[in-house]
Description:
Oligomer: single chain
Largest sheet: 6 strands, parallel
Strand content: 5-15%
Number of helices: 10
Strand order of the largest sheet: 3-2-1-4-5-6
Amino acid sequence: MSGWDAFITERDKRLFPLTGYGERGGFGERPVLLVIDVSYAFTGDGPEPIFESIKRWHNSAGEEAWKAIAQIQRLIAAARERRVPIFYTTGPERAIAGDFGMGRWKDKCGRETEDLEPERANQIVREIEPGPADVVIEKGKSSAFFGTLLPSYLADLGADSIIACGVATSGCVRASVNDGFSYNYRMIVVEECTFDRAEASHWVNLFDMHMKYADVLGIEEVLQYVGSLPDDLFVDRMPILKRAAAEDPAAR
């Protein structure tokens, strides 16, 4: 039984298997890890109830964010141990021409500018902060691919698959998964490592991605897969992975 069972109608539970959707795509051979938008704007300052957290950070997912962060820590540690490249995304460090750079976001959410602390809103939370071998990509729209260098980095690495996690399941995670799928990458979404403000949006989007665009898998299975990888897949194309491991005993 999956968490989405409470949100998917009995009709749709019957329908999708009959249409052929929901088959397992499988892991790739050269994966990267993509950590999407786990910044204070979406997590709040700490694990507190969402209705308290949104008083300060209107985009916060509250306690659910911090439950996911604890699991993302495990995923990142496993990736670093096997020298798997890690990409983080976040919003722009500075506002772009006032609120002009927000585009249509400001049309859809009237609170989009009222609670931002420029120095912290798009700062990746300390518990999973990037290391010297990790790549941080600033993006202005939902997808990690739209208007960024991510496609060229993945091509340079010869990656064939993406393990995705982060926030929001229904927004930036979904958009990034859809685009990754469109670029023909095998997409893996780690269930316990994703989160959203809305419960229904979270589970319905996990279900829909699993049916069409990705394998939505539990963290234990993904950790086992990452642990089975050789640790030299990418060091020839990204030598800093080897240097970072040599400097950090925990990453060896």
